[in-house]
Amino acid sequence: MAASAEAFPGYKPTPRGIPNSRVSGGTRSPLGVSCIGDPQAPRLTSIFPEDDLGYTTDQYPAFQWYMPQNNASHVEFNLYEVVNEDEGIFQPVYQTAFIPSATAGIATLQLPRTIGIEPLRADHYYYWSVEVYCSDDTTAVMTAEGFVELLIPDPTLAAALANSEGLERAAIAAENSLWFDTTRALSEHLQNQPNEPQAMESWQILLESIGLENIANAPLLP
Asked: How many CB atoms lie within 10 A of CB 136?
C-alpha cells in the first residue's frame, strides 16, 4: 500500500456515543488561569476524535494532548479502567505527575512497560485524563479527557500492520479506525523526519479530519 500525503485517508471514526470531552474544562476560564501564557490561544485539548472510543492494537499505547504555552507547576496524567460507568466505578491503572514543557505544542506520554503496569486488556475500555495545575492552585485549572480500547485485529489487518511502518502504517490504521496506532505511527515518523513534506501534510490531514484544524500546525514536543 503506497502512502502519500495526497492519498492519506484521514481518519474513519467508529462512533460509540462517547460524550464530548476532548476540549479542556476547569474551574476557571483561561482568562483567569495564572499559569497559561496566552488566554486567547487554543486551550488544553486531548488529541482524540470526538464521539469515538479510540481503538488501539498496542497494549501500551501513547497518549497525546495539545498543551498551551504555560508555566504550570505540574501536570497529572491518569489512566483508569472503566469497571462500571453507570455506577461511576473506575479502577486506577496508571498515574503520574511531571513538569510540562513551557512551549505550546503536542505532548506525548507513552504508557511505560517497565514498571509493572498491566497491559490493556481486550473487551475492556479505559478513560484517561490530563490535568494542569498552577503553583497557586490546589485543584486542576484545566482538564482534557479521552478513552481507549484494545482491539485484537483479524489476521489480515494484523499482517498489514506488522509489515508496514511510517506513513503506510498510519494510513492502514486510519482506514481501520485505529486512532492510537495512527497517531503513534505518524508521530514517530515525524520525530525521525520532522521536515518531510508528506509526513507533515499527512499529520495536518489527520487532525483536520477530526476537527482539530486550530492545532494542526502545532509542533510535536520532545
From this structure: 9
At 37, the pLDDT band (50, 70, 90 cuts) reads confident
Domain assignment present for residue 5? The answer is no
Q: Choose the final residue of a domain: 116, 137, 152.
A: 152
Residue 41 — very low, low, confident or very high, per pLDDT cuts 50/70/90?
A: confident
Report CA-CA distances (Å) from 86 to 6, 83, 90, 125. Answer: 43, 9, 10, 14
pLDDT at 21 over 60: no
Per-residue model confidence (pLDDT) at position 12: 84
> Per the domain annotation, does 221 fall within a domain?
no
Rounded-to-integer distance, Cα 11 and Cα 160, Å: 17
pTM: 0.89
Helix, strand, or coil (residue 207): helix
Beta bridge partners of 75: 98, 132
- For residues 175 and 91, state if they share a domain: no
C-alpha cell belonging to residue 146: 479521552
- 57 shares a domain with 71: yes
Cα first-last separation, the chain: 30
The three grid cell numbers given for residue 183, joined into one nine-digit string: 497517531
Domain that holds residue 116: 15-152
Residues 92 and 23 in one domain: yes
For residue 26, name the pLDDT band (cuts at 50, 70, 90).
Answer: very low
Grid cell 470531552 in the structure block, residue: 21
Specify the number of domains making up the chain.
2
